[in-house]
Write a sequence for this structure.
């Protein structure tokens, strides 16, 4: 609770800090604010509280996911350092919008009422619409912002309709009350309720870019400045999946058989589209966009398994995925800023020119591909175990396993470029010391979680 | 504790080697590998042969709530595999001394790091730990082959990597399924301990598909026909040291996996498919031998001969007889020794003449008595001449296959003839005959090269003359496995 209030306040302070002469203070300020929020958030561990007449609940689930999202933002921010040199008088606004977006994300994982869920999603999304267009001189960035905004608003409409229909059917926005009244007096689910549920599923599927509602993802990810793409594919996605699971678990658990067929179709389609799509991309950034779709698929697998392991699997996977994705986008940003190209060939010879960047990128790719010794392996492992527990879903694991092998193909294209192709004319990429520190931290964290997953997996 | 030391010392040494600048890295790596061998020898002297249970055990919780533990230990089969690994790695490192690889610290660190993975596979007593090390062993050798390999290395090693990972994902899926069939232990709902897997009572249909999931992973690694297509290219393109690691040690992971994690876990699934696997193995023997006869490139020839040998090991093991299993274990050792020696000799020839084509070689014997003798002994070991190591293994394996089925045994027996054909043909073409321009000047073995080949040659005779040294170590463990297989 305090973290939400703090973030709102800090966002405004950051906005006013824009009036200062120098931009230099903005980044340290934002990092300081987020560190405070991260620390304050931890105080609510094992101390579940409900606020505002049960509008929000800060339980361990909320604290855990808040931790992951705030940490992700903290790790993304240092890569913005180059902005200070070559951009732009609106820097303060960007940082504020990021802080507001995190606030929205926290509301999405701690809602107890559909209104709060909707508010959280909107606070997050509107910030992101703006951030997608911050590279004002580039048409692609403008295109991304417009596309994201139009599509996003359209699907927010679905979500809102869904919420309204659910309200009509059950007479409440409160998720525990909804859970108690999913079945009508005649003993069957009423059509309005089913329609509402379906619309909500579609609305949230769009937000986490699950197929077939994913088509905006590659274009938007590609056009958005890399820094904010990293934010989109980590914080936004994690918030979306966490909210999705919480909603299904708390409000619609008894309608499992109603939403299960829809969601399983979405999951399989997401896995296929994400992995196959990523395999045929020529640009690393688009590949990462499709890969983020595929990871939404793996996260959804844990959701549809819907047993006592799902929660912990989603949590671990979110953390592993976020950390690896930040490393990938971080390296991508550093490399592309200097080499001005987003194809796989940009990474040629990075193993010679920048051993550190290449190593971190390799760890990140291995983690995303789910290879042991990295956190991503245990992410996939926990997801698959949660699915296999239900014997009837083994085929889904087989499908996922086959597609994970495809995943290795496209992730290793980057590794091959870095180590096995000569650097040619490319020079050493300059890296700020703060960015190197973050990259080392991220790589160590990935390997640490790959060796000792129990550090995190037993938390939730 | 001993096993843990064996497991972590190479990884630690790998970090150390990373810090060494320049070509000094190879010496540090060599010493580290020797120390590892000394530890393994010490473990072997304190090993109690008569015991069937794993020794030097260590078990600490890893993901406690899920019942996954970091549990390691060695029985006779594991010990022999660990000895083979620790014996070969220093020789492989030493064999590279004449090359000055770029970035030597990374090269040698990867070799040592791979050793940790290999040893982990052989000592793991927990299914997920086994899988973990299985992949840990793969990643370093992929990088070694892909960075320091030949011209077509990138595409070839990539195929190898994706192919083997593809197989091992199936193994993971099968392990996860099996894990959920185990009963609760303590606070954990399930257990992935090997003994929990051994006690599972699954119906035959389930065992049947799990068999294929696991077999796919192991068969790709070995490789068994028709999953072998990655192997000749990879062996040819990889640098000599990676080829030695792959053929000498890594393919034993697949065979070891069959022994430890396939047959005792799903025996009735396996017994349903024994015929199919034996037929595949025997096709592999004949097919690879025939192709080997036609090869002109030395490395490819040995690569195909390796497929033939592994086919026989697989056929022997799947005969599920004591002779077959014992022969499989001893042949793993022999094959590791012979194939490493042969690949090293090819590397010697290649580094002096810059060619591996049989047709452009010839007449090397005239100036190289030491090389010729070593080459001949290793070659004859590979052909399975009596008194050499290959004979013991092939004899036991074939007698295992004969007990299973006479026809299979007879067909598999052709391998001895075909093996002699391609090996002798190769030896003749390379060593005898008239000198070619490439072999006009050919120096005999250097001190370092002798230091690699002489231990290998000694082992050829040791296993050939006194196989009981090794058979006795594995016997209780093999009996134990057969007991488990037959009881269920």
């Amino acid at each position: 609770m305090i973290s939400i209030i703090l973030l709102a306040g800090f966002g405004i302070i950051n906005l006013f800090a824009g009036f200062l002469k120098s931009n230099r203070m903005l980044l340290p300020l934002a990092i300081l604010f987020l560190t405070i929020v991260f620390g304050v958030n931890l105080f609510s561990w094992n101390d579940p509280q409900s606020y505002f007449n049960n509008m929000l609940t800060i339980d361990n689930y909320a604290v855990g996911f808040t931790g992951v999202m705030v940490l992700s933002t903290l790790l993304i921010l240092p890569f913005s350092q180059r902005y200070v040199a070559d951009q732009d008088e609106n820097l303060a606004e960007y940082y504020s919008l990021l802080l507001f977006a995190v606030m929205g994300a926290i509301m999405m994982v701690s809602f107890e009422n559909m209104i709060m869920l909707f508010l959280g999603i909107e606070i997050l999304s509107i910030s992101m619409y703006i951030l997608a267009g911050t590279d004002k001189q580039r048409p692609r960035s403008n295109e991304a912002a417009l596309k994201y905004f139009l599509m996003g608003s359209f699907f927010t409409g679905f979500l809102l309709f869904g919420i309204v229909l659910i309200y009509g059917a059950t007479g409440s926005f409160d998720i525990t009350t909804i859970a108690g009244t999913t079945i009508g007096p005649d003993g069957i689910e009423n059509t309005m309720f089913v329609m509402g549920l379906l619309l909500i599923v579609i609305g949230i599927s769009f937000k986490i870019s699950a197929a077939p509602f994913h088509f905006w993802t590659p274009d938007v990810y590609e056009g958005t400045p890399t820094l904010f793409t990293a934010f989109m594919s980590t914080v936004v996605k994690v918030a979306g999946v966490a909210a999705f699971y919480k909603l299904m678990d708390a409000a619609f658990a008894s309608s499992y058989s109603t939403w299960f067929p829809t969601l399983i179709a979405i999951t399989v389609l997401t896995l296929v589209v994400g992995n196959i799509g990523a395999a045929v991309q020529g640009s690393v950034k688009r590949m990462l966009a499709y890969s983020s779709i595929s990871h939404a698929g793996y996260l959804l697998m844990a959701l549809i398994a819907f047993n006592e392991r799902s929660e912990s699997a989603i949590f671990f996977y979110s953390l592993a995925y976020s950390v690896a994705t930040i490393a990938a986008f971080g390296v991508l940003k550093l490399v592309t800023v200097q080499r001005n190209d987003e194809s796989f060939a940009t990474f040629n010879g990075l193993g010679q020119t920048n051993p550190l960047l290449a190593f971190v990128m390799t760890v990140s790719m291995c983690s995303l591909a789910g290879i042991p010794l990295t956190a991503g392996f245990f992410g996939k492992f926990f997801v698959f175990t949660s699915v296999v527990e239900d014997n009837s879903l083994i085929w889904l694991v087989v499908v996922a396993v086959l597609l994970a092998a495809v995943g290795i193909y496209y992730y290793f294209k980057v590794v091959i470029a870095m180590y096995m192709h000569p650097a040619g004319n490319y020079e050493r990429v300059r890296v700020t010391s703060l960015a190197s520190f973050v990259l080392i931290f991220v790589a160590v964290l990935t390997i640490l979680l790959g060796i000792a997953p129990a550090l995190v997996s037993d938390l939730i | 504790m001993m096993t843990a030391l064996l497991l972590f010392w190479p990884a630690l040494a790998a970090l150390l080697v990373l810090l060494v600048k320049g070509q000094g890295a190879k010496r540090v790596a060599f010493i580290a590998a020797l120390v590892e061998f000394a530890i393994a020898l010490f473990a072997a002297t304190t090993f109690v042969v008569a015991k069937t249970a794993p020794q030097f055990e260590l078990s600490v919780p890893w993901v406690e709530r899920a019942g996954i533990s970091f549990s390691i230990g060695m029985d006779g089969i594991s010990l022999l595999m660990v000895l083979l690994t620790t014996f070969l790695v220093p020789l492989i490192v030493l064999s590279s001394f004449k090359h000055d690889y770029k970035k030597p610290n990374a090269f040698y660190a990867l070799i040592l790091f791979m050793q940790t993975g290999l040893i982990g596979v052989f000592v793991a007593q927990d299914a997920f730990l086994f899988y973990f090390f299985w992949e840990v062993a793969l990643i370093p050798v992929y990088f070694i082959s892909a960075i320091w390999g030949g011209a077509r290395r990138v595409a070839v090693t990539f195929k190898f990597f994706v192919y083997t990972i593809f197989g091992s994902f199936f193994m993971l899926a099968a392990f996860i399924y099996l894990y959920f069939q185990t009963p609760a232990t303590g606070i954990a709902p399930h257990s992935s301990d090997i003994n929990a897997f051994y006690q599972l009572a699954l119906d035959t249909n389930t065992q049947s598909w799990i068999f294929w999931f696991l077999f796919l992973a192991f068969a790709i690694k070995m490789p068994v026909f028709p999953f072998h297509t990655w192997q000749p290219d990879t062996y040819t393109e990889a640098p000599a040291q990676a080829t030695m690691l792959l053929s000498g040690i890594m393919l034993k992971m697949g065979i070891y996996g069959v022994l430890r994690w396939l047959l005792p876990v799903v025996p009735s699934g396996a017994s349903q498919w024994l015929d199919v696997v034996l037929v595949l193995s025997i096709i592999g023997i004949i097919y690879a031998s025939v192709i080997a006869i036609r090869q002109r490139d030395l490395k490819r020839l040995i690569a195909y001969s390796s497929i033939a040998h592994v086919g026989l090991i697989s056929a022997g093991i799947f005969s599920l007889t004591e002779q077959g299993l014992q022969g499989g274990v001893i042949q793993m050792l022999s094959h590791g020794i012979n194939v490493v020696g042969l690949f090293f000799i090819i590397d010697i020839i290649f580094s002096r003449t810059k060619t591996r084509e049989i047709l452009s070689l010839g007449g090397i014997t005239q100036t190289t008595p030491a090389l010729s003798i070593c080459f001949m002994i290793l070659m004859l070991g590979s052909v399975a001449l009596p008194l050499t190591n290959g004979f013991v293994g092939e004899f036991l394996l074939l007698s295992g296959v004969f007990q299973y089925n006479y026809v299979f045994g007879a067909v598999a027996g052709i391998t001895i003839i075909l093996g002699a054909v391609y090996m002798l043909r190769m030896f003749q073409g390379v060593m005898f005959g008239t000198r070619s321009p490439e072999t006009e000047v050919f120096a005999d073995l250097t001190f370092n090269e002798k230091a690699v080949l002489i231990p290998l040659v000694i082992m050829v005779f040791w296993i050939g003359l006194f196989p009981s040294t090794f058979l006795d170590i594995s016997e209780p463990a093999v009996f134990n496995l057969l007991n488990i297989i037959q009881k269920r």
